[in-house]
Structure formats: C-alpha cells, structure tokens
Amino acid sequence: MPLSSYTVLDLTIARAGPSAVRLFSDWNARVIRIEAPLHVNDAPTVTGQRTGSDEQNLHRNKRSLGIDLKQPEGQALFMKLVKQADILVENFRVDVKQRLGIDYETVRAVNPRIIYGSISGFGQDGPYSTRPGVDQIVQGMSGMMSITGLPGQGPVRAGVAICDTAAGMFLGQGILLALLHREKTGEGQWVHTSLLEAMISKLDFQAARYTMDGEVPEQVGNYHPTQVPMGMFESADGLVNLAASSPKMFKNFCETLDALHLLDEDDFATPQKRRKNRVAMNAAVNEITRQFTTSTLVEKLNAVGCPCGPIQNVGEAFEDAQVRHLEMTKVARHASLGEISLVRSPINLSNVTQEAEFHHAAPNVGEHTDEILLEFGVSEKQIAIYRKSGVI
C-alpha cells in the first residue's frame, strides 16, 4: 500500500484532525493514536462513545497507545516515539501544545525529518489564534452560512461538518506535499491549516465573485448561483435536480420535453438573458417538469446530455445502484460490536487495490500499548514500570 512505510503519531481529537489522519490510516500507514490513559474504555468523547458510529468511522485502521503526556516520564516516552516517526498530527490550541512540550520546535529538535501537521480553528497566529474553533462557528464567520438556504430565510448551517472535513482534507494534502519535499531535500517541516482558511478556500467561485468583482453572493436556495436553469425542480411525483444551462443543454431540454416555445422566448434566448430573468426561467422550467415523473425526467434528460437526478435521503443514496456498484462500504471487525460496516476511502488507484476489509476497528484507549512500545524497543520490564507509575 502507498503509505505503509510511514509511521504517524496521531494526537488529534474531534473531527478535523482525525479527518486528516484518516487519509493515512486508510492507505495503511502505521497510525498510532496517542491518548491519555482512561479507566473507562467507552467514556464519551466530543464525537461520542468509542463504540459509536462516529468514533468508529473516524478512527478505523488505527492502534491506540495510552500515555500521560502531563508526566515528565510520559513526555520523555513520547519523544522516544517521535525519534522514529515520520509524521505527527495534532489539533491542540497553541498554548496547550507548548504547555505539554510537544510543539513543533521541541519535536523538531528531537527529529529534524519529522512532518508536523497542525489544524486549528483560526490559524497558528493572529488575533483569533487562541480562540477555540468548531465547525459551526467557522461556517458562520467564513460566509458559508450566508449563502446557504432559501432567499430571505436567514443564515443556514450546511448539513455536514464542511469546515472540519475540508480542513482535514487540506492538511492531509499538505502532509503529502511535505513528504514529497522531504524525498528531495531530507528536510521535515511544519504543515498547518485551519478551519477558517479551509472554508474561505472552499467558497471557491463564490469567493472569486467578491475578490474580483466586489460582489457579495447571496442565498439562492436550491438553484445554482450563476447557471440558469440549474437546480431543484418539481416533478409529477416529487422533486428532481437538473442542469440545462449551456446553449446545447437548454436546446436539448426544450426539444426532449416538448417545450419548444421556450426557445422562442427572447428573455430566454441566451445564457446571459436566462441569468437576468432567472425567476421567470425557473418558473417556466417548473411548469414543464411538473408534467413528467422523476424517473421519466432522469431517463429522458440524461439521454440527451442534460444532467438529471432524483433527490434521495442518505439511506436511499447507499442503496442506489451506482453507489452499490462502487462498493462504498467496507467491513471492520470489532471485539464487542462484531462485524461493522464503514465508509471506505473515495480515492481509487489503478495500480493499487484497496484491501477488502479495514484491518482495525477504532481501538479502545490503550488497547495496543504493550505491542506498540515493544515495537519501539521498550522492554517489558520498563513497560511494567511505566504502567505501575500511571505513565501508560
């Protein structure tokens, strides 16, 4: 597997950091989750109980090592692992990692080749750097909520943790870039991003409308912000998403659904006019689509190059024929839960086959402490001493 030669020390909690580490665990890096020792294995965390679906999905293919980093012996033991690691990922606030003595400068002094990855709410410096940051706060601050929802509805949260997962994806990409850089130079480095940086980037063309044109985007509901007609429309038996915004697609839409009269409307004659008259355009399309069932629209429009699809709930999406063909789930085997189904990595490589099952379910705290320390050269006698003193 592509990442099987790399060792990753995972100090992350919540969602953004684990989303970054999941890229490495899914492609068989040797991921070691470092956690404070607990007496209750299934104690709830920010993302629920360890045996819950969220924790299992975030932390599959990892092993757990319980170390008390607040003890000097625990910090020294951690640095022994650092010497042999390739990557360290954390999402502590700036003051916390410095207080624990695991900040980048301290870690680099022990292992100059290490790639040190960090995620924060707002960045590693600046006026907000010491603030705690979670997904919904950044959705609001980044402008994301202002462009989500129906016109006049007021700000709406996106239905997924878009800031957390975007930041995790970007940090994972950044660490891979740093690994490529290290292959050329032998140098490690600090890679960091934040929920705010990730979300500003994710605004994409909506952001460019402001940075280039000074336009502040607004809510447009289930319609595309700039392409017309494109969005959610009514069908005879429900709702449907469709796109017919280019000249060719619009012509094919009108011809296929016996709506040739729309081609004769001057207000709809060009993409520019359709954008200008978007309310009337969308209303006219709705009048047409209401005459056909969703399945008929999907069949007819896709056949002539107009993207069209049904509106499905999450359960329907997983049972969809294409999703089932793509085999988007894999099995993990858990000691108490048995065989559980989790979502696989969406990355496909032509020369690498994903393994049929996850090799580890999300571990209990410290579940693999002894075997990991033995791999790092710690003797059984020393392990016993650490355990007696509460270091592990």
Query: Which fold name is given in CATH as the topology of the largest domain?
Result: Rossmann fold
CATH-scheme architecture of the largest domain? 3-Layer(aba) Sandwich
- The assigned structural class equals alpha/beta
Report the sheet with the most strands, covering strand number, pairing sense and barrel closure: 6 strands, parallel
* Elements, N to C (H/E): EHEHEHEHHEHHEHHEEHHHHEHHEEHH
- Per DSSP, the total helix count is 17
Shape: elongated
Proportion of helical residues = 40-55%
| Mean pLDDT metric | 96
Strand order of the largest sheet: 3-2-1-4-5-6
Termini separation = 31 Å
**Range of strand content:** 5-15%
Radius of gyration: 25 Å
In the CATH hierarchy, what is the class of the largest domain? Alpha Beta
Low-pLDDT residue intervals, each spanning 5 or more residues: none
| Assembly annotation | single chain
Total strands: 11
Number of domains: 2
Write the layout of secondary structure elements.
Elements: E1 7-10, H1 16-26, E2 30-35, H2 53-58, E3 63-66, H3 72-84, E4 87-90, H4 94-100, H5 104-110, E5 115-120, H6 135-141, H7 162-185, E6 189-194, H8 195-202, H9 205-213, E7 230-235, E8 238-243, H10 247-256, H11 271-276, H12 278-289, H13 294-303, E9 308-310, H14 314-319, H15 321-326, E10 329-334, E11 338-343, H16 369-375, H17 380-389
Parallel strand pairs: 1-2, 1-4, 2-3, 4-5, 5-6
Antiparallel strand pairs: 7-8, 8-9, 10-11
